Amino acid sequence: MGSLEGMLDMVPGGGALKGQLAGADPEREMKRMEAIILSMTPKERANPQLIDGARKRRIARGSGVQPADINRLLKAREAMQKLAKQFGPGRKGKLGGLPRMYGQGGAGW
Fold first, then answer.
1. Measured between alpha carbons, how far is residue 74 from residues 9, 41, 69, 99 in Å?
2. What distance in Å separates the CA atoms of residue 77 and residue 83, rounded to the nearest whole number?
3. For 50-85, what is each residue's pLDDT tens digit?
4. Residue 100 CB-half CA count within 13 A
5. What is the architecture, at CATH level 2, of domain 24-89?
6. Per residue, what are the HEC states of the chain?
7. 12: left (phi over 0), alpha (psi -120 to 50) or beta
8. Does the pLDDT value for residue 98 go beyond 70?
9. Looking at the whole model, is its pTM more than 0.70?
């Protein structure tokens, strides 16, 4: 698929996200996020609201990160979930929130 930065170029609005990654190594960050997620139980992955302070400490020990990194990941997940809802199936057919992004949508975009 290519690098993470290359994929962001293909996503609408990805340029803004690419600017936020400046200075960070995106591949390393992805490995870190993967380690955090793999340190969670299946229930915690399905229901992140279950993750309290004690669970965050356990996950942090298992993935070799600080609890603050877990907080960042959970906030990023929440933001992505909100973004996904915008593009999810909407009231106006299959395109969901996509027409809002391009004005009225239809054949003219």
1. 24, 15, 9, 29
2. 10
3. 999 999 999 999 999 999 999 999 998 998 888 888
4. 13
5. Orthogonal Bundle (1.10)
6. CCCHHHHHHHCCCHHHHHHHCCCCCHHHHHHHHHHHHHCCCHHHHHCHHHCCHHHHHHHHHHHCCCHHHHHHHHHHHHHHHHHHHHHCCECCECCCCHHHHCCCCHHHC
7. beta
8. no
9. no
Residue in the structure block whose two tokens are 């020990």: 61
Q: List the domain boundaries for the chain.
A: 24-89
Residue type, 59: I
Within its chain, how far is the Cα of 34 from the centroid?
Answer: 12
Coil, strand or helix at 93: strand
pLDDT of amino acid 85: 84
State the average pLDDT for the chain.
78
Name residue 100's amino acid.
R
